[in-house]
Amino acid sequence: MKTFIGIILIIISPIMLASYAAAGTNKAGLYASVRVLPYVNYDINHQDANLTITQQDIDRGYAEISNAIILSVKTNSPNGYVINFFVGGDYIREISLSDGSNDYSLSESGGELYFVYGGMNYMTKELSFRFTLLADSEPGTYDWPVSFIMSPM
Fold first, then answer.
1. Same domain, 24 and 11
2. How far is CA 54 from CA 59, 74, 116, 136, in A?
3. Full-model pTM
């Protein structure tokens, strides 16, 4: 941001001097404004590649995975950010998600969660999942069924 402002000043300074010199004793003013767009940056520190479902999971009706996704998130948006989750897998009825502080529910196709602004420093989000399984689910190892995108609000 400092570099951007420096470049603007370098470009504007000669224009201001030239207009002042050309105008003699007349004064001219120049006003500039900068709008900083909201952004969200994140790093995926860990994401499970697979979901293994056992017969025991099917018998109890769900599979739990602790800290399946660990993110470092930073935003400048005072409104926070949203994570849109997309779920694949025809063996899932619904998903419960926990970030350690709050519990959330997603449908079998996904959903969106809103998170508040936490300052300009990176914050760690450790996401744990509980997949409620359909009764006709089969034991096995599946590709990780959850993908996501993040956006500032």
1. yes
2. 9, 36, 36, 13
3. 0.75
